[in-house]
Amino acid sequence: MPRKIILQIYPDKANDSDYVFKRLLNDVGLRAENINSWEIVKRSIDARKKRPQIRLEIDVFINDLPKQSIAYRSTLKSGNRDAVHIIGAGPAGYFAALKLLENGVKPIIYERGKDVQARRRDLRQIQQFDNVNPDSNYCFGEGGAGTYSDGKLYTRAKKRGDVQNILKILQEYGAPADIQIDAHPHIGSNKLPKIIQAIRNDIESKGGEIHFNARLTDFIIEKGILKAVVINDLTEVPVNHLILATGHSARDIYNLLVNKNVKVEAKPFAMGVRIEHPQALIDQIQYRQKPRELHLPAAKYSLSCQINGAGVFSFCMCPGGFIVPAATAPGELVVNGMSLSKRDSPFANSGMVVSVGPEQYGREKQLDGLEAVRYQSKVEQAIFQFNESASQAAPAQGLLDFLNGRLSQDTCPTSYIPGVYSARLDHLLPEHIVLNLKEGLKQFGKRMKGYLTKEAQLIGLESRTSAPVRIPRDKESLEHTEIKGLYPCGEGAGYAGGIMSAAMDGQRVAFKIAQKIIDQ
Ligand SMILES: Cc1cc2nc3c(=O)[nH]c(=O)nc-3n(C[C@H](O)[C@H](O)[C@H](O)COP(=O)(O)OP(=O)(O)OC[C@H]3O[C@@H](n4cnc5c(N)ncnc54)[C@H](O)[C@@H]3O)c2cc1C
Question: Are strands 304-307 and 269-278 parallel, antiparallel or unpaired?
Fold first, then answer.
């Protein structure tokens, strides 16, 4: 058993292994000749001190050596058994495919978007020319919504799977080793595409199939059993087990399910804005340093409170990041956040959202499980239509102007490439969101002195925080509660909220199916 040692070290020394080793000897009174090996197992920032310190959790091996773990990729087998079909090549779909291959089962994936490289051209089209391709955008395409993201890899859903296993797999496919030890690991959207490509190469080399530009357009269901799916309105593909991992933005899938009388349930989600500050200001608040010292990463924050029974919270905070246009169809305006691995843009952005529940969407005329989707979509379209130029330019309001109910004379500098224009977000957003957001922001201003500043602005609309629908599945078999052979999976089905939890759900569903096939 290793001896656990905690060291607190100033940032400029935390990556100097000779220094860390000396501190191990001095602080803990160990002798060099008694140490077989040592390794950092957890790294976090302690910003409570006058000068922030890096907290290192170190395993020191005195009588033994660290266990050598088996390379994950060597555990993949050729997929010779019955094929399992997967719809969607996001984290849920790809991690499901890998799990099937661990068990010798062949995955066949259909993805409506393009491969990760070709997808870049469509992102440029949205950023620079306002053209939203409904099959290839920030949410759709190889790697799913997580590809051109911040690549934050933490989750609160630790009980839903093996977080360390997902991190190990990502590292083997090219993610930096730091993700294994950082308290808040992240990859960055410059590195994610290569990792996704490497995963695809392994899936294909083991006999799996991946079809791009292949959208599921119909389900063939007979007497409660899923018999086949139709791809691109053309090709009927018979299926025994179908993993449906189409993400939270595939509204056509939700509509199709309802049209086929497949049960779906409306579910609470959250909606609001992106808030953008200068990164230097967030660094100053969190680290009390301006500029922050070289070895500290761009500072982040996480805020939440309850106002009148509604949750108000920061969401997907991107230090040193960019705000991006995340619409999935023409005629809607949605923003989200991403960053590169260095997180070195001069802006800090975060979703700042309010929970939306049945009190809001339950007033819709039709209650068929899609009422929350319609509510979400209505606000996205209204925000888009407000701007007569029909572009992806987003409405913006200075933070103080939002709180005081006035139009901003000027907009602040922003990372959002399609541009912003001054508008009364306090008039454009639903009243419930405006009232609670105002109160929440005031509370956050008390917790982070300097957060409420004229240098910050709100940009709308942040609405794709999680799925507004749950596709019900049996707790044990993970099959749809009414349709045999259909396995709702990942974020779109309401069982995940982020890259890690979607990947874990993919593994979980795939393992259930693989077991079933093996037992047959
Ligand atoms: C800009 C942005 C930044 C984000 N940043 C982070 C972050 O830093 N950390 C984090 O944890 N999460 C982040 N997220 C959220 C995260 O990406 C999702 O939670 C995660 O990708 C969900 O995984 P999934 O596999 O369930 O679905 P998705 O990733 O949404 O994948 C679904 C896939 O299904 C495909 N599909 C949809 N319909 C069909 C169809 N009819 N036929 C065939 N294929 C179809 C889509 O094209 C897509 O590729 C971010 C999201 C966005 C948009």
Answer: unpaired
Q: What angle do CA 179, 180, 183 make, to 5 degrees?
A: 70
To test ligand 1's pocket by mutation, which of 251, 491, 505 has the most ligand atoms within 8 angstroms of CB? 491
* Ligand 1 center to 90 CA (angstroms): 5
Q: Cα–Cα distance between 429 and 356 in angstroms, integer?
A: 12
Q: Which atom of ligand 1 is nearest to the CA of 147?
A: 17
Query: In this predicted model, what pLDDT tens digit does every residue of 48-85 receive, in sequence order?
Result: 988 999 999 999 998 888 888 899 999 999 988 789 99
Please name the residue that has the structure tokens 């997907």.
316
Q: What is the mean pLDDT of the chain?
A: 95
For residue 242 and ligand 1, the question of a CB distance below 6 A is answered with: no
C-alpha span between 395 and 378 (Å, rounded): 16
Q: And the tokens for 437? A: 């957001």
CATH number of 76-264+471-519: 3.50.50.60
Closest by Cα among 237, 241, 256 to 473: 241
Of residues 520, 467, 518, the one with CA closest to residue 495: 467
Nearest atom in ligand 1 to 148's CA: 1
Residue whose CA is closest, atom 15 of ligand 1? 498
Question: Which residue type, as a one-letter code, is found at position 144?
Answer: G
User: Which strand (E) or helix (H) includes residue 226?
Assistant: strand 225-231
Average of pLDDT values for 192-216? 97
For residue 506, give the ligand 1 atom closest to its CA. 25
Nearest CA to ligand 1 atom 12: 498
325 C-beta closer than 6 A to ligand 1: no
**CATH number, span 3-61:** 3.30.70.2700
Distance 466 CA to ligand 1 centre (A): 10
Out of 99, 136, 149, give the residue to mutate to test ligand 1, the one with the largest number of ligand atoms within 8 Å of its CB: 149
Q: Is the pTM of this model over 0.85?
A: yes
Start-end of CATH 3.50.50.60 domains in the chain: 76-264+471-519
Distance in angstroms (rounded) separating the CA atoms of residues 242 and 271: 31
Task: Convert the pLDDT of each residue in 224-261 to its tens digit.
Answer: 999 999 999 999 999 999 999 999 999 999 999 999 99
Which amino acid appears at position 84 of this protein? V
Token code pair at residue 19? 């220094």
Q: Answer whether 196 contacts ligand 1 (Cβ < 6 A).
A: no
- Whether the CB of 166 sits within 6 Å of ligand 1: no
Strands 37-46 and 53-61: antiparallel
